[in-house]
Write a structure and sequence with these properties.
The protein has 302 residues and is of the alpha/beta class. Helices cover 45% and strands 17% of the residues. The protein is built from twelve helices and nine strands. It has a nine-stranded mixed beta sheet, sandwiched between helices. β3 and β4 (102-106) form a beta hairpin. α1 runs antiparallel to α2, α2 (29-42) packs antiparallel against α12 (286-301) and α3 packs parallel to α9. The protein is globular and about 65 Å long. The model has no long low-confidence stretch (mean pLDDT 86). It binds guanosine-5'-diphosphate (GDP) and magnesium ion.
């Protein structure tokens, strides 16, 4: 469990009361940021989010970490909601609609109906939140995964991703080894994360296995150079760059083939994540810094 800072919760409650009294518009950025603040302070779990354009293997990577094909993956833009994956004994999905109706179902089939994009690549407007409960050791430690839509599609999805990044404790930015981080991705990394005070970021290179062995070394070396130019703040001694071939990793997990999982790079990421999360959760000032970041952003909007 993470240290919940009662002072921060009180400040956030006061701000929430203030926006009620002032009857601030439902859709204003200020109201959204203050709601984010409350959500961030009260969430007892450590939230790990994935961030990248669509089709970079974000959902596949989370499935590989989970060791199950839990989240929807496809060649077309798929993830159509912020999907929180939390600990539960049985695999179960809970959908909360905007009218506060709750739909709960065993398994994850229901995600297709409520949490994937429609034929026009739009999100389901009825849905308020999507939670999946899974029995997994990392989740049992008080971690939750957050699967997000891709960033290079529609403005509505971009807005959702930007809000969700603010309330995530650690972010994995997935990089496609075939593209070496486009200018847009580098700008997003800077503008959506670092410039907003979100510094706990890890880069994970996917699709490196599609290159020849010598080319893999060159691509890795060039991405190492890019990763070093970003000031990620992680516990000392940890790299901010990992290589994971997400699909082979998932296949290895599904078959129980440890060698394949090892070769895919997943084992190395898993052990780094475990230690980084344990250390960050012990850090007293961790939440406070992000709280200050969110209030600073809100302040600029007033
Ligand atoms: N060949 C290959 N395909 C992958 C890999 N990772 C993901 N994919 C495929 O890429 C497509 C998009 O993956 P998905 O996880 O839905 O991407 P997302 O939009 O970023 O969540 C799917 O068809 C995956 O099977 C990989 O490591 N190698
Ligand atoms: Mg996805």
């Amino acid at each position: 469990m993470k240290n919940i800072d009662e002072n921060l919760i009180n400040i956030s409650k006061t701000l929430n009361n203030a926006i009620e009294v002032l009857a601030i518009d439902e859709n204003s950025s200020l109201k959204r940021d203050i709601l984010s603040l409350g959500n961030y302070c009260e969430n007892q779990n450590f939230r790990l989010a994935v961030f990248a354009p669509f089709n970079y293997g974000k959902s596949t990577l989370l499935n590989a970490l989970l060791g199950e094909k839990t989240l929807p993956i496809d060649l077309i833009p798929t993830t159509g909601a912020a999907i929180y994956v939390k600990y539960g004994e049985q695999l179960k999905t809970k959908i909360t609609l905007n009218n506060n109706k709750i739909i709960e179902e065993e398994g994850t089939n229901i995600l297709k109906k409520y949490a994937t994009l429609d034929d026009n690549r739009c999100m389901n407007q009825e849905v308020k939140s999507v939670e999946v409960y899974c029995n997994h050791s990392l989740l049992k430690m008080g971690v939750e995964f957050l699967d997000l839509p891709g960033t290079n599609d529609r403005e509505e999805q971009n807005k959702l991703v930007k809000d969700q990044l603010l309330t995530s404790d650690l972010i994995i930015q997935v990089v496609d080894a075939r593209k070496l981080m486009t200018l847009e991705e580098r700008e997003n990394f800077r503008d959506w994360l670092l410039n907003r005070g979100i510094n706990s970021v890890i880069l994970v290179i996917n699709f490196l296995n599609l290159w020849e062995p010598q080319e893999q070394k060159d691509v890795y070396y060039r991405l190492r150079f890019v990763a070093e130019s970003f000031r990620s703040i992680l516990p000392s001694g940890f790299s901010n760059l990992y290589r994971v071939d997400a699909l082979p990793a998932l296949r290895g997990k599904l078959k129980g083939d440890n060698n394949e999982v090892q070769r895919s790079g997943l084992s190395m990421l898993e052990s780094a994540l475990q230690t980084i999360i344990i250390q960050q959760k012990q850090e007293q000032t961790f939440r406070r810094e992000r709280f200050e970041t969110i209030t600073r952003i809100s302040h600029k909007l007033i």
